Amino acid sequence: MTRPIWIKHAAQLVTLASDEKGPRTKEAMSDLGLIEDGSLWIEDGIIQAVGSTKELEKHYSERIHEAEIVDATNHLVTPGLVDPHTHVVYGGSREHEFEMRLQGATYMDIMNAGGGIHATTRMTREASEEELIEQTTCRLDSFLAHGVTTVEGKSGYGMNLETELKQLRVMKRLQEQHVIDIVPTFMGAHAVPPEYKGREDEIVDYLIHDMLPVVAEQKLAEFNDVFCEKGVYTPEQSERILEAGKRYGLIPKIHADEIEPYGGAELAAKIGAISAEHLLKASEEGIKAMAKSGTIACLLPATALYLREEAALGRKMIDEGVAVAISTDCNPGSSPTTSMPLVMNLACISMRLTPAEALTAATYNAACAINRQEQVGSLEVGKQADIVLWKTKSYQELQYLFGVNHVKSVWKKGVKVV
Ligand code: NIG
Ligand code: FE
Question: Are 362 and 402 in contact (CB under 8 A)?
């Protein structure tokens, strides 16, 4: 038995507790379940009680002497942040492409010339499993330092069975070794490998018949993602891949309408994807369809900034009733960052989310986008004690003082890790 932890006197305790299940939409995205002078009692890695300091003091009066006390006076306390969309396992780096893009080359130009995703694929194929573990560990450490306690991770820099499995095995090993929880997604359809150029339907068949069954059999992924984009996979090809994944129990996600409007949001709604990602160019009808189907919009404002594009219409999506989550998209090309606090700032600045909505999008709705809302994303009795204590006194101040890491301490499953 570990000693109980009593976090008390939080200036603001953001619980995000609610009786409603499922992703939050509209006004519910602003309801943070805020408790002033808030308090949490943690035992065996699980939250045992949440309330005001007065309430918990009374309830635990007989046991206070047992507890390790954390005085959070003048500090904000929130759930651990959840990043529902990353490409965190990769070999090498692409800083030269950053300079090329500053000189005018586009993301797609670079990819079509064999760079971009293809360059990282070559470097990931060459890297050993140990090298990938080492590089990814550094990135996960950085996530943790920024208050992120759960991340989704995608394969997709293999695009052959061997390397896709290698990336997924790295995630499985890191789930065992690293304190961060990693939720794995298979993304064999991240690009069309050059060896399949002009034979796109053959790679779709290969993905469906040779890759998906093995990934499913080895239980290496929970989700299946496709880059549905002009010049990559068409909506029809994406649908085939995602429907095939469903038959193996893999839940669909879609990189949709990132560079051009392409019917990705509509497809996400049609096939019941749990989330659609990017959506910079999503159509009006696509947004309406997602609101109706309950598909979560996973928006990536750091990617838009990095590609010097207009951000997605986050404000409009919330007003139309779409549940919005946000993410770093951590990857070596379009968003090499591990800072979810920066992503929250950008969600406010470039998509006009309110500070409260941005926090919901980075915690509870993010957990819903990776099916972890029963375990993480809010501070409620019975949930994992994944908690961040911030240097700021309020969530408003956290979103306002931008581009700075305000994390003071992080607990993962009740253990102080930062
Ligand atoms: O989500 N758009 C496709 N995939 C990634 C980028 C991957 C890369 O450039 O390496 C994204 O932005
Ligand atoms: Fe992505």
Answer: no
Q: Is the CB of 332 under 6 A from ligand 1?
A: yes
Q: Whose CA is nearest to atom 12 of ligand 1?
A: 334
DSSP H helices, 179-263, are 200-206, 212-217, 235-247
User: In the CATH hierarchy, which top-level class contains the domain 81-370?
Assistant: alpha beta
Instruction: Indicate yes or no: pTM above 0.90.
Output: yes
Q: Which residues have a Cβ under 8 Å from the Cβ of 237 and sit 6 or more positions away? A: 189, 200, 201, 204, 226
Q: What is the ipTM of this complex?
A: 0.98
CB 253 near ligand 1, within 6 Å = no
Kindly calculate the radius of gyration of the chain based on its CA atoms and give it in whole angstroms. Answer: 21
Choice from 90, 238, 329, 337 to test ligand 1 binding pocket (greatest atom count within 8 A of CB): 329
Residue 139 zone, left/alpha/beta (φ > 0; ψ -120 to 50; rest): alpha
Beta bridge partners of 228: 233, 256
Alpha carbon distance 287, 264 (integer Å): 10
**Token pair recorded at residue 50:** 């949440």
Q: Is 80 annotated to bind ligand?
A: no
Digit-coded pLDDT (tens) for 339-396: 999 999 999 999 999 999 999 999 999 999 999 999 999 999 999 999 999 999 999 9
**Domain 5-79+377-416's class?**
mainly beta
The domains spanning 5-79+377-416 and 81-370 adopt the same CATH topology: no
* 92 annotated as a binding-site residue: no
Q: Where are the domains of the chain?
A: 5-79+377-416, 81-370
Question: Which letter does DSSP use for residue 66 in this model?
Answer: G
